[in-house]
Amino acid sequence: MTLVNQEMILEYARTMGDFTTKQMATIVYGDVDHGHTSAAHKKLTKLVKHGDIIRVGRRKDGAQWQTVWRAVL
């Protein structure tokens, strides 16, 4: 199992441009299991509080809305 921390998420975010929570969970965890999506969202929210990532808006992904994020470069 790979240890996923905020630094790892920030590294990927800097190379991705705009991305959704599910896209980030897929990259760092390898799937979109509810627990992994929730953990990615929590880490992204903490990075927003630190000023490293911003919320861009929301995008409809199938039947659900997903938060769209972007790294502050």
Topology:
Layout: H1 6-16, E1 19-20, H2 21-29, H3 34-50, E2 53-61, E3 64-71
Antiparallel strand pairs: 1-3, 2-3
Task: Provide the number of structural domains.
Answer: 1
Strand order of the largest sheet: 1-3-2
- If you consult CATH, what is the topology? Arc Repressor Mutant, subunit A
Task: Compute the number of helices.
Answer: 3
In percent terms, what proportion of residues is strand?
A: 25-35%
CATH homology superfamily name: Winged helix-like DNA-binding domain superfamily/Winged helix DNA-binding domain
Please state the second-level CATH architecture: Orthogonal Bundle
What is the CATH C level class, in words? Mainly Alpha
Span between termini: 29 Å
The average pLDDT score comes to 93
* Number of E-state strands: 3
- Fraction of residues in helices? 40-55%
- Pick out the low-confidence regions: none
Q: What structural class do the secondary elements suggest?
A: alpha+beta
Major sheet: size, sense and barrel closure?
3 strands, antiparallel
Describe, in plain words, how this protein is organized in 3D.
The chain contains 3 helices and 3 strands. It has 73 residues and is of the alpha+beta class. The chain has one domain: Arc Repressor Mutant, subunit A, CATH 1.10.10. A hairpin with a 2-residue loop joins strand 2 (53-61) and strand 3 (64-71). The longest helix has 17 residues, at 34-50.
